[in-house]
Amino acid sequence: MPAGAPLGNQNAAKGRRFQKAVERVLARKYGDVDKGFEALAEKYIELAEAKDQPILRDFVDRADGKPEQSHVLSGDADNPIVHKIERVVVDGSPTKDA
Question: Does residue 97 lie in a domain region?
Fold first, then answer.
């Protein structure tokens, strides 16, 4: 079975459409896509330095990666509750009793 999205799936193309639109606007506004990205990066850094909380959190997530999610829902570090998912394949044919 081939890996990836099903044949005909256009989700990636839609994402590229947005990226291309952003690049067109940056080129139009700043004369060059790279200059536009640099101007936005500078503003982003300024907001992070001003301690704009959502921007600062996003900056740290991008710089260090998001914190690992905890998988222990209850219990403690020494006695965590373990969740188990089990796949059972059953024969779906009718039995003699049915």
Answer: no
Q: For the chain, how many structural domains are there in total?
A: 1
CB 73 within 8 A of CB 83: yes
Whether 86 is covered by a domain: the verdict is yes
pTM: 0.51
In a domain, 5, yes or no: no
**DSSP secondary structure string, 12-56?**
HHHHHHHHHHHHHHHHHHHSSHHHHHHHHHHHHHHHHHTT-HHHH
Residue 1 covered by a domain: no
pLDDT one digit per residue (tens) for the chain, 98 residues: 566 778 888 777 777 888 899 999 999 999 999 999 999 999 999 998 998 999 888 888 888 877 776 654 566 777 777 777 888 888 877 777 65
Residue 32 makes CB contacts below 8 A (sequence gap 6+) with 26
